[in-house]
Amino acid sequence: MTVEGGRPNPLEFLDDEIAELKRANLYRPMRVLNSAQGAEVVVDGKTLISLSSNNYLGLTTHPRLKEAAIAATREFGAGSGAVRTIAGNMTLHEQLEMELAAFKHTQAALTFQSGFAANTGVIPVVTGEKDLIVSDALNHASIIDGMRMSKAPRVVFPHKDVAALRELLRAAREKGRADSGEPYRLILVVTDGVFSMDGDIAPLPGIVAAAEEFGAAVMVDDAHAAGVLGKNGRGTVDHFGLHGRVHIQVGTMSKAMGVLGGYVAGSQALRDMLIQRARPFLFSTSHPPAVAASCLAAIHVLLEEPELIERLWTNTRYFKGELARLGFDTGASETPITPVMMGDSATATKFSRRLFEEGVFAQPVVYPTVALDGARIRTIVTAEHSTEQLDRCLEAFGKVGREVGLVSA
Questions:
Q1: Which of 63, 148, 236, 385 reaches 20 to 30 Å from 38, CA-CA?
Q2: How far apart are CA 149 and CA 382, in angstroms?
Q3: Domain ranges of the chain
Q4: What's the CATH number of domain 62-304, 3.65.10.10, 2.60.40.10, 3.40.640.10, 3.40.50.1980?
Q5: pTM to 2 decimals?
Q6: What is the pLDDT of residue 102?
Q7: Residues 221-259: pLDDT tens digits?
Q8: What's the confidence (pLDDT) of residue 4?
Q9: Choice among 218-222, 318-322, 369-373 with the minimum mean pLDDT
């Protein structure tokens, strides 16, 4: 065992585990961004076209968001100083939540430090030992962790399989709780709106209909649908016209909105209970004024500049079509999230490294984020990309794809 300062190091086993990750091509080094986020970035000192950001609409550098952040900092300072239930609840936080609720067509909303914190905050509050959680097999890690933190039992239905979901709900209502046979107080069906690794959209109308048939509630994590789907980017609930039928909507302000944070939108009672019991809310300092103000500005941009979403989808359709023409497998993607399937992690790692050399920043996604045989390059085009930039990316994909034998054209 290695000795540090004359004492044994009980964490020496970490060195062996890191070495094993590197051997299996599962080790992910951290590259360093030397510029603002955008269609073109500087990473590790090299200028590249980026396909790795969730900055769908380019709002990270939008002048209205930057000016809002500067003005809020000048007026309210750099930080809020406390958790919101003690002394850190500012007018900006309250205004942001009022406008989020109006945007989502719900009674109320509550912000969290991240979308991850929102999911791990809301699920343990609304479910317990007398309840049941029914979850899509490919739900985000934050949903999985939120379920683990709840005392409620849980079952998983195959990805997007509404028929299987209906049978699980039927059995749950017929059999009741495993410990007593009594009816569940609550059955909560949880799904992503857009699945983050495959880019496909949840069959929300079928999920909602099945839940209503058996008296269950529905929760949707719309992190990758916010700013992308629905009128002005309101998400999958709006996209499918299901307002009033989805009980809990989780969203993020860290992706298409270009800033930071998550939120839960739903009833006033839901907001009130989250304030009383959600641990990420109760034990984390609230957003700095600059963050809250720039998130507010992002909502205004979504409402007043819909052409950004139109441009995002124009770029998405073009890029997907050209990848298919080159012969790449993009899986089941229906959104700007477009995975280019590689299969094994060694190929994905090599492919990403070669793209970097060719001037394209597109990161590999490997186990445990996806299955061992499901490694991929996950690409996301944005409203900021020009056709010329996308063509340069496609040229690099074609060149590297031929080198590694993924495409033959």
A1: 236
A2: 35
A3: 24-53+306-404, 62-304
A4: 3.40.640.10
A5: 0.94
A6: 98
A7: 999 999 999 999 999 999 999 999 999 999 999 999 999
A8: 61
A9: 369-373
Which amino acids are annotated catalytic?
196, 224, 255
274: CB partners within 8 A, 6+ apart: 110, 121, 122, 125, 264, 281
Distance between CA atoms of 228 and 102, rounded to whole angstroms? 18
CATH of 24-53+306-404, one of 3.90.1150.10, 1.10.150.20, 3.60.15.10, 3.50.50.60: 3.90.1150.10
Q: Distance between CA atoms of 23 and 265, rounded to whole angstroms?
A: 44
SS (H, E, C) the chain: CCEECCEECCCCHHHHHHHHHHHCCCCCCCCCECCCCCCEEEECCEEEEECCCCCCCCHHHCHHHHHHHHHHHHHHCCCCCCCHHHHHCCHHHHHHHHHHHHHHCCCEEEEECCHHHHHHHHHHHHCCCCCEEEEECCCCHHHHHHHHHCCCCEEEECCCCHHHHHHHHHHHHHHCCCCCCCCCCCEEEEEECECCCCCCECCHHHHHHHHHHCCCEEEEECCCCCCCCCHHHCCHHHHCCCCCCCCEEEEECCCCCCCCCEEEEECHHHHHHHHHHCHHHHCCCCCCHHHHHHHHHHHHHHHHCCHHHHHHHHHHHHHHHHHHHHCCCCCCCCCCEEEEEEECHHHHHHHHHHHHHCCEECCEECCCCCCCCCEEEEEECCCCCCHHHHHHHHHHHHHHHHHHCCCCC
